[in-house]
Amino acid sequence: MESTQTPVVTLITKPGCHLCTLARDVVTRVTGELGVEFEEKSLPDITDPDPMWWEQIPVTLIDGETHDYWRVSERRLRTELSQRLSAARSA
User: By C-alpha distance, which of 22, 20, 19 is closest to 41?
Assistant: First the structure.
């Protein structure tokens, strides 16, 4: 049987960003409810970040791919993670 891999959500933030606080609340809630790994990285600490991230902060990545930016949609995040979890279970 193949091993299943659950998605990893990364939230890219920067200090003093009020939208980052709102995004963190959404990401923390959704990942906690679904049992998905969540990590937060501060943009100034990232080596060689995507240049667009400076304009799009906060940025949400799922498995390293951009999912959302500026405002995190709880519905979109939950739907995408649920689909990935379902696909991982049936693999």
Answer: 20
From first to last of the 91 residues of the chain, give the pLDDT tens digit: 333 588 999 999 999 999 999 999 999 999 999 999 999 999 999 999 999 999 999 999 999 999 999 999 999 999 999 999 998 888 7
On whether the CB atoms of residues 39 and 7 are closer than 8 A, the answer is no
DSSP character for 3?
Answer: P
Separation of CA 32 from chain center: 12
Strand 59-62 to 65-69 pairing: antiparallel
pTM for the complete prediction?
Answer: 0.89
Smallest CA-to-CA distance from 62 within 89, 30, 33, 15 is with: 30
